[in-house]
Amino acid sequence: MNWLANNWSSVLELAGSHLVQSVVPVVIGLLVSVPLARAAAGSRWLRPVLVTGSSLLYTIPSLTLFVVLPLILGTQITSVGNVVVALTLYVVAILVRSCVDAFESLDRDVLQAATAMGYKPVRRFFGVELPLAVPVMVAGLRVATVSNISMVSVGAVIGIQSLGTLFTDGLRRSIISEIVVGIVATVVIAVVLDQLLRLLGHALTRWQRTGAGARRPAERRRDKNGPGGARGGAGALATVESGGAPA
Amino acid sequence: MNLFAQAAQFLTDPANWAGPTGIPVRLLEHVGYSALTMAIALVVAVPLGLWVGHTGRGGGVVVGLAGALRSLPTLGLLTLFTLLMGLGLMPPILALVLLAIPPILSGTYSGIAAVSPALVDSARSMGMTESQTLLRVEIPVALPVILGGIRNAALQVLATVTIVAYINLGGLGRYLIDGLAVRDYSRMLASVVLVAVLALAADAVLALFQRLVTSPGLTLTGDRP
For this UniProt entry, which residues form the secretion signal (chain B) (predicted)? Predict the structure, then answer.
């Protein structure tokens, strides 16, 4: 671990770059996916276009995007921007699919009750639909974040700076501790962000647990149908969880 | 656009389609590494997923294990194993197997675990043994989800095999690494386009397979289990 003592400042710098490349796409991806998914839910033409488009996009390897995007964006091949754009596309591909399912499987009774209580569409969206979709969204975000963190390092193969640079540099100079530091740092970032998202999801879905004792049967029925009374939500969660992203 | 034209030229040049460094050979290497990886990963992950899903024991451990493996950077493992074990086929294959296990494991486990308990109970009450329940009821019902996980793993492996060229192996990534070394951007482009086409083709084949082996009982309209 002498290596780390001598190089901690460059490791921190690479970790910062790694963090930016993996987190910025998640934030932008979320902001893009939610309105897109809401518009697509129930839409006859937008839904198939988005669902097919996102699964096609998901099939394109990240290295392909890292190499092709500079031509489209006019950036340098080693630019961090390529990674940010490529990973944003993957985040959208993951989130749109699961969010469409989440919005479409909302309990109609709940929506009608909200409307009957005088909720206008915009307020109903932010006050009822969005909170009910949170469990599926958080599950999608966690998968997207963890797979982003692991994908970012692949960019090092073509010279994009990240913690992955420690792997290529460590291999070239045969420094095992450099690679180990890179792996540990990557895993630590992944675990910390994953737990932060889990806590965020927990904090945003307190309604799922209030009065759980009194409402056991309803709770159980809800579990079977998926979180938040989202019918088919469990299916969406399973899809999200069995899927990583193409490296 | 000029670069795309050059890449197209590289891809259509007959010289690049012949010999030991030609596209067909690289393609076969690429598919071969991927197939070997998938075979090992399937042997490890499917039985484990079936067992955990069927008995319900260790579900939390499996989910945690899959999550932990997923956060391991494949490039890091690849370089680490190569330094520890030397150049060769096994270090990168091992790294790729660790990449392929999480989706297969969680797909198999969650597929089996999601089979309706009523269905399993009725199978048992009809006198089926545990293995019959698993083979004749749980696996057929869970098959679409299991295959979904396998398809996902195959895609990730096909995409990631590209980087084994970084440690002197073959595969379609060879053109990417060699192109990078001599700043031949069109060759890099040709490489990643070939990988993308291979991934799309493999996904289409696997999707078709998934549809063919799905039990007709699962696709009937009405309530799905």
Answer: none
